[in-house]
Fold this sequence. Notes:
By secondary structure, this protein is of the alpha/beta class. It is 43% helix and 18% strand. The strands form five sheets. It has a seven-stranded mixed sheet with strand order 10-13-14-9-8-15-16, sandwiched between helices. Helix 3 runs antiparallel to helix 6 and helix 9 packs across helix 10. It is globular and about 80 Å long.
Amino acid sequence: MTETRATPSEQIAPIVASLRDTARSRATHSRRFRVEGLKALRRMLDEQSHRIALALREDLGKSETEALATEIGVVKSEVDHTLLHLTDWMEPSPVKVPLAFQPASAHVAPRPLGTVLIIAPWNYPFQLAINPLVGAIAAGNTVVVKPSEKAPATSKVIAELVEEYLDPRAVRVVEGGAEAVTELLEQRFDHIFYTGGERVGRIVYEAAAKQLTPVTLELGGKSPCVVSDGRNWQTIARRIAFGKFTNAGQTCVAPDYVLAVGARSERELQKRLPEVISEFYGANPAASKDYARLVDTAQAERLESLLREALSGPNPARLVSGGTVDVPGRYMEPTVLADVDPDSALMQEEIFGPILPIIRVDTFDEAIAFIAERPHPLAAYLFTDRHRYHKAFQEQVTAGGLGFDVALLHAGLHTLPFGGVGPSGMGSYHGEASFRTFSQMRPSLTKSDQVDTLRMAYPPYTWPKRQAIKRLM
């Protein structure tokens, strides 16, 4: 295993200061500079894809195909989309001016924020570090990237490749754990972009508030999956299993639990999910090259404890399939549980692992109420043949994003903004949303002084002026 590296704490403040000097020079503002940075990223992805995939395999046991599909390919698509549309995004947008202000013109122009900090998590350690970097570069900022120390091989690769491919005046990588984050949060940034858990998110938010630094928080939560009145049960099971067990369940928008509406939905899911798990990963998922590993033994111990408590608590769940855990090997078999107690520990926190609880509810309305009683999730999914349920789900469920008859995929679309709501996060990114997140949309008004049409607005406010203002306003 690659050892965790750390940037010496005494170097962090000078790194940030040098980036702030570059931002003040406006060297990163030109379209040419931005495009050169994005093209350099694209070359890096093309030339170093195998090296990045090897790091992801070491950290999380990801196959090269999964690494390409869920990490490297996602960033390639983001870069290509951004290069295609950057010129249009940078253009000022004209704004209508009311009659009372005429003659005049107004527009909104995107401007770089300055120097921004990106703090990445460990579950998709490459994608979630570099994808927001694409938007930050496109918006003309200088950037500090802080990869996760829990994925040390990927952190090392990111640090080495950024130094090799990108302009050090504009982008730097700081490695390390909590101490590095603490030191970074003491510096002054113009925006902080954090992806990770709620606990650290609160720390980041509190530190940012002290300096009135705006933040984007991409958190998580218990994303529900409602299944009601299906027809193609095998496809439903495949799509739920794919969404849940990709990256061994360590995905912030993975279905956290399933609400099966009625006896038939419950019965079909209990039958089909084990079948498709075997179809995906074989009879022994531990031997599958396509099934990832948990990030560390602490994660394995946490999940094992949750599973053990769910199976042996006052209202024990029933093991439908899976259940094998190898803590030293960072392995947990894809596991499906039924008859899960909604008040169990398993249902009190985001599982973030390959355990899928199935909870039966009698009606669709009961499922909606179940979701509404809990904190707003990052995603919510509905599988049904009843189209009227789609409309009800859209109107009544509050979540960062919705998926109908599919799970997970919306998070990979650069044409859809991605973000949470309430406790699952604030702000969004991907595609143009990333560009806007890392830009100030600055308004501007121009009014010639050759003819002073504002005389009616100047004091003293005589009766004729008051009447004229009433008519205009």
